[in-house]
């Protein structure tokens, strides 16, 4: 028996040491963004990796609420360059994203550049080594060069779904069957849908060229070729893995390469954390149910145009439910007695409360995902970016309603809230969507953790590299092959035509000769 136990122990040790487990890797995470909600998923992943024994260093402007063992924070000061823009959005101004693109792009590039040039980050470059770099993307793809600074593999994290700008591993776009992000999740596309999709993707390609032209100087400044750094294009091709904070149940199915992985829902905790005492008491006492109101981390509710703010307050004040509202100042003028406010609220944990009946939201991807996960229907008031598309999908799937910003009045908002609260079909539909979203072979956290450790184990996993990523436009679309086929067919046609021409002349010539002989 003792011998048998020894053999089992020996086998277990052999398996444990076979290379399928990795511990104690040094992971550097850099996410230069001024949007707190963008970093939540990546912070959750890095906390999990730290708990597994890895040494994590996270560079951002957002600290954790509580320290975590093996998790070191390098905080870089941010600015409020996006503040005026966000404020204008909340007043219904300047909401054309094509016009706002240069402002958002410029702000993100400058902030990322400031992060990489900061004394805190430069100290890491001079003094430390890492096994893996994970970079967060927000209109700043030159950040992928950080991996070259430390001579280690690079993983890219995008807090949204598939975006062509983050397609650094050469994933097929499939314009004929997969609608563009800004077109929403259309079903089987008709001919005119495919025409529209082609036009959107063509414009998208033009935007990519503009962004590439604007971004290249930032890359060259931080990673100059004369110091041995790879080119801008090569640095992007060297990315080992791309993470998307999305899940196929929220979009249309599309083909993905092995090193392009959906890990939607990272920020959602399987078991909610205990709520602060005041929030717990407020929600527990909501006998008629509770409603959560939030416009996300970037948009400030206090900046809402006065008539829109008045309409929301008037609507909420007449409801029998208790309201909890993410509000960015200490006081809310005219706050109704059934409203509780807080500057930063634990959204995921609040949505998990049993008394939560409705979420009034701007429609950010994280908010929509958490609402669906916890089976809470939505009334959406989209403000900018992908929010309109996200809410339109919620409406299409039948678990919420939209109130457009321009149409927001006390009457329209009251009507939408009453319909969602009183009609059980919305709760039934979101409950089904929640089950669909949760039904996975492994959690988002387990999947993301596996792939991070896989890349570390295999030193960047070069075997995952898709050779199609190295092809140019002509090669990727087989234009050179079709050109060869065309040339060969043209040559064959000319040869056949020449042969038939000669045969025709021979036959016709022979016929004329016989005709002349008969006449003589």
Label the structural class: alpha/beta
Strand content: 5-15%
Characterize the largest beta sheet: strand count, sense, and whether it forms a barrel: 7 strands, parallel
Fraction of residues in H or I helices: 40-55%
- Strand arrangement within the widest β-sheet reads 3-2-1-4-5-6-7
What is the number of E strands?
Answer: 13
Poorly predicted runs of 5 or more residues: 1-19
What Rg is obtained from the alpha carbons, in whole angstroms?
29 Å
Shape: globular
- Distance N to C terminus: 119 Å
Number of helices: 18
The residue-averaged pLDDT reads 90
Could you describe the 3D structure shown?
- The protein is of the alpha/beta class.
- The chain contains 18 helices and 13 strands.
- It has helices at 2-16, 36-51, 83-90, 97-117, 119-127, 146-149, 191-222, 232-237, 277-284, 306-317, 347-351, 365-373, 387-397, 410-422, 424-438, 444-457, 473-476, 479-519; strands at 26-30, 55-60, 71-75, 132-137, 154-158, 241-244, 260-262, 290-294, 322-326, 339-342, 356-361, 378-380, 400-402.
- A 7-stranded parallel beta sheet has the order 3-2-1-4-5-6-7, with helices on one face.
- Helix 4 runs parallel beside helix 7 (191-222) and helix 10 (306-317) packs across helix 14.
- The radius of gyration is 29 Å and the shape is globular.
